[in-house]
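Form 7-S
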Amino acid sequence: MEDQIPNSLSASDLEGLLSKAAPDVDYTEEKEFAGLTKSELIEHVRATRTLLHEKAPCPMATKIMALMMLVDLENYHEGIADKAAEHREPESAFIWARDSGIIKAAHSLLMGVSVDNTDFIADEVNGISSDND
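Output:
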C-alpha cells in the first residue's frame, strides 16, 4: 500500500505521527558536544561571549552574534533534514525542517528589533535610511 499525503494535518494528527516515528538518527559524525563535556561546552561559550563583550561592548555586537548563531543553527537543522530525506525518513526530515523554519522566523524577528539608535540592521528592515558606516 502506498503512503498518501493528506491535504492537511491537525495537531493531533502530528502528535500521532510523532508517537509512531522512529527515534531520531544522529547523522553527525561528531561526538556529543564535539568531544566536550556539558560543563566544558558551557564554559567555552561563556568565554566567547565574554570576549565579544570585552572587544565590542555594545548591544549591536550581541545582536550580530545572535543573528550569526541563528543562521548557523538554521543551516545545521536544514542539513540534518536533507540527510533524513536522503535516507527516506520523511517524519524525521519534516521535524528537522520545521525546526529550521522556526529558527528562521526567530532570525527574522530579531532583525527587526532595534537595540539602540545606531541599529543599522533594524533600520534597514524597517525601511529607515542609515548613514552610520
